[in-house]
Automatic annotation (TrEMBL):
The lineage of its organism: Bacteria, Pseudomonadati, Pseudomonadota, Gammaproteobacteria, Pseudomonadales. Residues 39-187 form the Phytase-like domain. This is Esterase-like activity of phytase family protein. Residues 1-18 form the signal peptide. SUPFAM superfamilies: NHL repeat. It comes from Pseudomonas weihenstephanensis. Keywords: Signal. It comes from the Bacteria.
């Protein structure tokens, strides 16, 4: 009886006002020209070159020419084999197939990362699978133990269509991958490479949580589910891009515990940069010692200033660097 009463109270709970975090400072913004499907959904700096993916394109990734204020996306074709069975239930998989002709893009690429050898890893949301693209351009799906999806679902993640894996990070050695489950519930998972198979070792699930998130006051929006929209690994720490909160958080890789967060709402939500949508649009994240690259997936929305292309923002690193203590 007490548990039932507690559950009812939690369901009707009013979200606690968002904590005030230090604001990152916007240094520059770069519209991206030439993405066939637009919808920039992932960014990664690989051996000095910026790479991107679109969740509308199945047969290519993009190398970004960043020499000028307006960036140019150069198509890099990839020959993608048939995706593997990941353990997703039939209903979730069929929903993805049904929406693909309308959305464009069956694989729904949602994140990209790379190891020190230059291999790029791309996560497919609709198949809960990871594609590896070698520096030579050869593409193959990683053999991931089905325990990954099974454990995620047992923890309340990956239960809903279009709320699956949304971000990916890999360590420089290329033998450990972290994945971010998007929402309802959101969470962090990891797999390690054992010869040719990636498995859960001591368990895949690092953290799992649910609950409402109060958007920044500029949006004047109702609370939304907590979410992750991308991951980055820098200086042995995980960084999560939290779309609805307009926030980047540094987390402990082994537990997912929040160590510190930074907001980017102040510069991202100026009148000129606002979209008519009442939800966050930041989808892509790359971190380095000097700052953060944040990619905006505007979908079909036009910004208040008329900008229709995807945009990448450059934020300066916080005072004291990303490793600074609160």
């Amino acid at each position: 009886m007490r548990r039932a009463l507690l559950a009812l109270l939690l369901l009707g709970a009013t979200p606690v006002p968002a904590q005030t975090w230090p604001e990152l400072v916007l240094q520059s913004e770069h519209p991206v020209e030439g993405m066939r499907g637009a919808n920039l959904s992932g960014l990664a700096m690989c051996q000095g070159e910026m790479w991107a993916v679109s969740d509308r394109d199945d047969d290519q990734i993009y190398r970004l020419d960043t020499r000028y204020p307006e960036w140019l996306a150069n198509e890099v074709s990839i020959n993608v084999p048939a995706p593997p069975e990941s353990g997703l239930p039939w209903g979730v998989r069929m929903m993805g197939k049904a929406i693909a002709p309308l959305r464009g893009g069956d694989l729904d690429f949602e994140g990209i990362t790379c190891d020190a050898a230059g291999n790029r890893y791309v996560v497919s949301e609709s198949y809960a699978a990871v594609l590896m693209v070698t520096p030579q351009g050869n593409a193959s799906w990683l053999k991931i133990d089905s325990g990954l999806v099974r454990q995620a679902r047992a923890s309340g993640m990956l239960l809903h269509f279009n709320a699956l894996f949304e971000g990916i990070a890999v360590n420089p050695q290329g033998n450990q991958i972290w994945l971010a489950a998007e929402r309802e519930r959101r969470g962090l998972l990891t797999v390690r490479k054992k010869q040719s198979v990636w498995d859960c070792e001591d368990g895949c699930v690092i953290m799992s949580e649910a609950g409402p998130e109060q958007p920044p006051v500029q949006l004047k929006a109702k609370p939304q589910s907590k979410d992750f929209s991308d991951l980055a690994l820098f200086d042995a720490k995980l960084f999560t891009l939290e779309r609805m909160a307009y926030r980047i958080c540094r987390r402990t890789p082994s537990t997912g515990e929040v160590e510190r967060c930074w907001s980017f709402a102040q510069d991202a939500l100026t009148d000129a940069r606002r979209y008519t949508s009442a939800y966050g649009n930041a989808e892509a994240l790359s971190i380095d010692d000097k700052g953060a690259w944040v990619g905006v997936d505007n979908g079909n929305h036009v910004r208040a200033d008329g900008e229709k292309r995807p945009v990448v923002w450059r934020f300066a690193a916080p005072q004291g660097g990303w490793s600074a203590k609160p």
